């Protein structure tokens, strides 16, 4: 856009000129006074007689106004910061020059008639003789500059309002005089510039009287100068920066409305002149050349153009666009451009005006956001002018048209840059904008969408290249300057070329001197396009543009920039791998030539290495020898070059195969390495100094070094097959083939002939030893080429070939490998021959016993082994354990986490071949059932392969279970001792003085007797020997306890052998006594069952005569659920005593079977009757049933007893009675029962019979020992159910009768009593 006349394409922004302040920028005053010499003599001078202001306040206001200059803002309606005004701000001190309103007459011209004065016009009008448009021109571009730089819309004058009262009147009068003079000068000039005044107050006081005085002075000045209230502004003194900016902001907002009115008046004046419909006459009729003046169509174009410009000042873009389009159509109509001959200067002026109008139309469309319309409008103007030039001018096949095409593309890019379109900004990564809603229904072509700026710059570069081509086609005769050519030739070629906005042929492409630098123009445009493409990640387009730019730089022999531009492309973009061979070849040759010119040895080597490929076309007379790459390059040191995989498509390819999918550690696996050359057929052989094969996994790297073989390997065609033996790396042997980034150990080395000829394939068979188990994959192959001049390394990443995995059997025969991943081998662990055995392993181990496990580690290897042991116990809260190894210290495990206990690397020393080593593992007693996984891992090393660990694992399931389970029953019994009386003072317990707790008083409370019956069963998998059964009563502060036990275990302590799944019984007689008689609370009874047992092999003989040793006895504690005793509710207990009137040793014997005592129990001796009741039979079995009622409360209670007769038994005793009980007392009632029925029918009167049965007087132990001390005796009898009812008289509640002795039981329907059968 810089090639167009100055100001012709600038944005139309209202012009604000500040006047009366000291300016420091020279551009401010020069831009206003830069009038042409022809107009400067007639210019109108506006001068102020006062000195320019230099105060800080004036500078601050002026700085704020200049900072709001909108000249550089984007030409878009969508500003990031909304603005209420837009000004083009310039400054002048105290004088400005305005262009003359009327042009002067030509010198020496005499008016034809003194009575008719001539009408003078503007110097920019085609009606004025001094104008360049006279007499038939259209628009002078300087007219645009007139309103942009010369004539302001608002003249803003600054004055200082002094605070000195003695000078205030004088200064105010000077201000009024100066303002009136400036107003008069503006009026005489004929321009309608608005005048505004800014008064900077110097009054520092903020009092009310001072403020009123300033306002009065301002009002006097306003009335004296005839100013509008909107044109006079007062800036108070002493205000803050924010207050100053607020005043300036309000002032600019007000002035913007004034400026808009100014341009509205100018637009109205242009429309008024157009509506006249006549063409005005010039000041002086034309007399030379042609007498043709500007037609009415031309005047309409002028007026439409002016109307559009003034509408653009007012930001009425729709109005401006309509006027521009109207002016454009009239300009290119048959009434104007079609009538102008192409040789006339007016032809190029018309084309220039068409371009200016088209550019302003594009700006209006972009302002309104009509992006697709702007692209189509650009294309429309291009096609319209091409048609016009082809028809009326010299056509479009010349350098002038291509120059215009390039300029037109750049104009579009510049317009987009000034519009600041955020949707096409680089962060958005958009390449083009979609059509707007108004164009959605139309079918647009791709070039009718608005693309980003890189598209337009590249298009411009293409046209500049075409311009250069046309320029180079100019004949030599036309390239000479007119002074060096014959006159006839000059006259002949005068109108042969179109020179619209471009130089003549002899300046475009001179014959003996430089002309237009087309190459530099192309490079600038391509670099700008490349930057746009890169910002939007269009890598391929940027690369293509860079190639074009590099060609231009090469033509200019700018080799450094060529290398700088092409090196990133050549290294980063895989042209060849993607099939762009032609591009890669051109790029490589160009880069090689540039690198040789600047002596870049590394780049020359890389380029020559790439050019060896057969994919590129063979260049004649090129050596194709990598060893000759640096013949014409000067180097200071020996270069070293590294080529990474994928940098470019190398002419060398490689493959690697494992013959087997898997192998075992300690063995070898066959492998095959193939290296193929795809070099140019006539190129020199490449001698590889070495190749390095690296693996990802547990294999060592492999190096093959070049060694010329005297005997040639088997060769068939172009394939050479060789077997390479590998040896381990010797200590101190250098291996420079391994680069720093390879890592890992390098231990395997072989030698082979590594001479690689064009089209040849080298195949090497190798046996690679496997060391550690795991997955191993061939990773990369590094080729090393060593010459006297340089070192080169190329790294090739090995790839799988799918189904093309061919294994070379011979140079001419191959086979396909079946496994899908030939680059990988799965190394299995070496089969261990170390055995882990447990001679005695039990299915179950039991809680509360120490566990000791013995293992044998047997070495089945052919040689001795150095071994270590890992032991892991996994389960829920595993205990710590101890491992004992002969000849080593004991090792204790450590807790790794809550579910794992581990012993790591316990040394076991050396185990000889075919020998075993005993290991002992001890666990402490475990108190709960658990299940653990016990893992033993032996890691050993053989002296034949000390670097390869071998491991053997063994897993054992350790089950720990409870050996016993039990159930419990607590039966009530009647305590034989009488209860203490609540009314006896001796039973009152007085606590000792001083709180002596060491000797607590004896319990004086109630006593109760209970029988705890336990039945335990063995859940072991084998018989266990139970040596003792006992209980532990946990002490309680509420009561004291004592007990006696009754078991059937032998007293010798040898115990009893309890088979699995059998139930054993033990009874414990408990006596509980409250501490005081006043305690009425329940007392807890916490008991644990203690079982002492041993395994059958724990020291006792099989017959059970000898007890096991104490250390072999295990103690199992089974907690018993808590019982609650000593309640306050009344309790009814039933006990029986059996009387057999047998004459034994001269007296009657009375016994109570099953009571555990030889004495008869009689709670009330006063009710006891003589046993010798005079029964003549002397052999009648009767039973005494005693009903005892206990009242443990503090209340007086009354109970009623009732006994109903029965057909099964006879009884003696009260049939109905009432018993009254004092608090804390008990009483008993006795009945004598005698069986009279056989009970076979199961019924009998009111009291039902239960049935017949037998009762044992004593239970005999398994070893023959008597529990009761007498011989076992069985009696026949029946169980009867007495109809006995005990009722609380007060609450009318029937109490349950509880059996409290042998011979009494609780049946389904009540109490049942066993009676011996009569007879």
UniProtKB/TrEMBL annotation:
Query: What InterPro entries does the database record attribute to this sequence?
Result: Gryzun, TPC11
The ranges of region (Disordered) come to 271-292, 709-744, 1098-1120, 1135-1181, 1237-1274
Biased composition (Basic residues) is annotated at 1137-1150
List where Acidic residues composition bias occurs. 1157-1178, 1264-1274
Compositionally biased region (Polar residues): 710-722
- Bias class Gly residues marks the residues at 1239-1252
Give all residue intervals belonging to the Trafficking protein particle complex subunit domain. Answer: 346-614
Where do the Gryzun putative trafficking through Golgi domain residues begin and end? Answer: 641-1141, 1180-1239, 1276-1316
Question: Which residue intervals are annotated with compositional bias (Basic and acidic residues) in the record?
Answer: 1254-1263
Please identify the protein, giving its name as recorded: Trafficking protein particle complex subunit 11
């Amino acid at each position: 856009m810089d090639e167009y006349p100055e100001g012709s394409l600038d944005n139309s922004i209202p012009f604000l000129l500040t006047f009366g302040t000291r300016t420091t920028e020279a551009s401010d005053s020069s831009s206003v006074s830069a009038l042409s010499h022809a107009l400067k003599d007639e210019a109108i001078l506006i001068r102020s007689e006062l000195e320019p202001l230099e105060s800080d306040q004036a500078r601050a206001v002026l700085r704020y106004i200049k900072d709001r200059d909108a000249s550089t803002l984007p030409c878009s309606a969508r500003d990031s910061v909304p603005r209420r005004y837009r000004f083009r701000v310039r400054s002048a001190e105290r004088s400005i020059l305005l262009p003359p309103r009327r042009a002067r007459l030509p010198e020496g011209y005499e008016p034809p008639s003194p009575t008719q004065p001539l009408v003078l016009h503007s110097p920019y009008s085609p009606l004025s003789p001094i104008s360049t448009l006279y007499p038939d021109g259209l628009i002078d571009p300087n007219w645009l500059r007139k309103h942009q730089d010369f004539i302001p819309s608002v003249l803003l004058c600054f004055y200082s309002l002094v605070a000195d009262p003695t000078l205030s009147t004088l200064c105010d009068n000077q201000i009024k005089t100066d303002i009136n003079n400036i107003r008069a000068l503006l009026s005489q000039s004929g321009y309608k510039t608005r005048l505004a005044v800014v008064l900077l107050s110097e009054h520092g006081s903020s009092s009310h009287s001072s403020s009123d005085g300033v306002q009065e002075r301002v009002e006097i000045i306003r009335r004296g100068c005839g100013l509008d209230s909107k044109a006079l502004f007062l800036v108070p003194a002493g205000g803050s920066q924010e207050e100053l900016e607020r005043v300036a902001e309000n002032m600019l907002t007000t002035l913007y409305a004034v400026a808009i009115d100014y341009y509205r008046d100018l637009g109205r004046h242009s429309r008024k002149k157009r509506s006249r419909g006549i063409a005005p006459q010039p000041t002086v009729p034309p007399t030379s050349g042609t007498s043709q003046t500007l037609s009415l169509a031309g005047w309409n174009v002028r007026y439409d153009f002016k109307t559009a410009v003034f509408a653009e000042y007012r930001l009425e873009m729709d109005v401006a666009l309509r006027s521009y389009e109207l002016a454009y159509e009239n300009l290119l109509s048959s009434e104007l451009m079609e009538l102008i001959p192409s040789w006339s200067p007016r032809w190029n002026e018309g084309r220039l005006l068409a371009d200016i109008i088209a550019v302003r139309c594009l700006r209006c469309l972009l302002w309104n956001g009509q992006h697709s319309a702007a692209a189509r409008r650009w294309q429309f103007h291009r096609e319209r002018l091409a048609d016009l030039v082809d028809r009326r001018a010299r056509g479009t096949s010349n350098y002038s048209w291509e120059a215009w095409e390039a300029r037109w593309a750049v104009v579009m890019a510049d317009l987009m840059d000034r519009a600041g379109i955020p949707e096409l900004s680089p962060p958005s990564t958009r390449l083009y904008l979609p059509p707007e809603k108004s164009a959605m229904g139309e079918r647009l072509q791709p070039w009718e969408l608005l693309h980003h700026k890189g598209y337009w710059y590249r298009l411009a570069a293409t046209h500049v290249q075409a311009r250069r081509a046309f320029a180079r086609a100019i004949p030599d005769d036309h390239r000479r300057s007119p002074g060096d050519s014959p006159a006839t030739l000059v006259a002949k070629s005068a109108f042969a070329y179109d020179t619209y906005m471009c130089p003549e042929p002899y300046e475009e492409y001179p014959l003996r001197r430089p002309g237009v630098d087309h190459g530099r123009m192309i490079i600038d445009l391509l670099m700008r396009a490349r930057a746009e493409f890169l910002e939007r990640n269009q890598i391929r387009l940027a690369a293509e543009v860079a190639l074009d730019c590099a060609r231009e730089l090469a033509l200019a022999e700018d080799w450094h920039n060529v290398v700088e531009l092409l090196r990133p492309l050549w290294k980063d973009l895989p042209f060849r791998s993607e099939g762009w061979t032609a591009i890669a070849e051109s790029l490589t040759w160009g880069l090689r030539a540039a690198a040789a010119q600047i002596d870049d040895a590394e780049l020359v080597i890389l380029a020559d290495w790439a050019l060896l490929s057969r994919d590129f076309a063979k260049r004649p007379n090129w050596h194709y020898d990598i060893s000759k790459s640096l013949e014409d390059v000067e180097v200071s040191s020996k270069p070293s070059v590294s080529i990474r995989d994928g940098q470019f498509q190398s002419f060398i390819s490689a493959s690697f195969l494992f013959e087997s999918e898997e192998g075992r550690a300690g063995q070898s696996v066959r492998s095959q390495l193939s290296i193929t050359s795809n070099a140019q057929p006539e190129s020199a052989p490449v001698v590889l100094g070495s190749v390095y094969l690296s693996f990802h996994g547990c294999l060592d790297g492999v190096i093959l070094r070049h060694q010329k073989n005297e005997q040639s390997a088997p060769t068939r065609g172009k394939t050479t097959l060789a077997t390479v033996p590998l040896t381990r790396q010797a200590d101190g042997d250098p291996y420079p083939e391994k680069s720093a980034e390879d890592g890992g150990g390098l231990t395997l080395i072989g030698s082979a002939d590594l001479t690689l000829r064009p089209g040849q394939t080298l195949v090497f068979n190798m046996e690679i030893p496997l060391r550690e188990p795991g997955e191993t994959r061939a990773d990369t192959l590094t080729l090393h080429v060593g010459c006297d001049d340089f070192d080169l390394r190329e790294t090739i990443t090995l790839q799988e070939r799918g189904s093309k995995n061919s294994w070379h059997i011979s140079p001419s025969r191959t086979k396909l490998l079946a496994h899908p991943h030939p680059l990988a081998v799965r190394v299995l662990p070496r089969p261990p021959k170390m055995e882990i055995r447990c001679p005695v392993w039990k299915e179950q181990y039991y809680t509360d016993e120490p566990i000791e496990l013995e293992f044998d580690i047997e070495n089945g290897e052919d040689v001795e082994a150095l071994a270590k042991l890992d032991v892991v116990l996994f389960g829920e809260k595993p205990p710590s354990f101890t491992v004992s190894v002969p000849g080593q210290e004991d090792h204790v495990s450590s807790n790794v986490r809550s579910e794992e206990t581990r012993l790591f690397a316990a040394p076991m020393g050396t185990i000889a071949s075919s020998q075993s080593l005993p290991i002992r593992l001890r666990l402490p007693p475990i108190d709960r059932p658990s299940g653990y996984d016990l893992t033993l891992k032996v890691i050993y090393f053989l002296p034949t392969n000390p670097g390869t660990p071998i491991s053997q694992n063994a897993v054992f399931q350790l089950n720990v279970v409870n050996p016993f389970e039990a159930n419990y029953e607590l039966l009530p019994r009647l305590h034989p001792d009488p209860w203490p009386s609540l009314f006896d003072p001796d039973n009152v317990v007085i606590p000792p003085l001083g709180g002596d707790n060491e000797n607590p008083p004896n319990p004086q409370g109630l006593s109760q007797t209970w029988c705890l019956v336990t039945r335990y069963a063995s859940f072991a998998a084998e018989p266990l020997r139970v040596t003792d059964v006992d209980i532990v009563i946990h002490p309680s502060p509420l009561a004291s306890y004592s007990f006696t036990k009754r078991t059937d275990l032998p007293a010798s302590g040898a115990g009893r052998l309890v088979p699995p799944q059998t139930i054993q019984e033990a009874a414990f007689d408990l006596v509980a006594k409250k501490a005081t008689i006043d305690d009425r609370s329940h007392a807890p009874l916490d008991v644990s069952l203690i079982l002492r047992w041993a395994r059958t092999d724990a020291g006792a003989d099989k017959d059970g005569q000898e007890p096991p040793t104490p250390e072999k006895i295990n103690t199992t504690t089974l907690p018993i659920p808590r019982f609650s005793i000593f309640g306050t509710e009344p309790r009814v207990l039933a006990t029986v005593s059996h009387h057999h009137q047998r004459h034994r040793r001269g007296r009657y014997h009375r016994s109570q079977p099953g009571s555990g005592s030889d004495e008869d129990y009689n709670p009330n001796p006063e009710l006891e009757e003589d046993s010798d009741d005079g029964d003549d039979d002397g052999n009648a079995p009767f039973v005494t049933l005693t009903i005892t009622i206990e009242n443990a409360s503090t209340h007086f209670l009354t109970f009623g007893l009732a006994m109903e007769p029965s057909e099964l038994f006879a009884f003696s005793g009260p049939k109905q009675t009432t018993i009254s009980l004092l608090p804390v007392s008990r009483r008993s009632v006795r009945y004598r029962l005698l069986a009279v029925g056989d009970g076979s029918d199961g019924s009998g009167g009111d009291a039902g019979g239960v049935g017949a049965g037998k009762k044992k007087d004593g239970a005999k132990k398994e070893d023959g020992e008597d529990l009761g001390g007498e011989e076992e005796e069985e009696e026949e009898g029946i169980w009867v159910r007495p109809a006995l009812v005990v009722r609380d008289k007060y609450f009318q509640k029937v109490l349950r009768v509880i059996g409290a002795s042998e011979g009494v039981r609780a049946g389904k329907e009540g109490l049942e009593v066993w009676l011996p059968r009569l007879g």
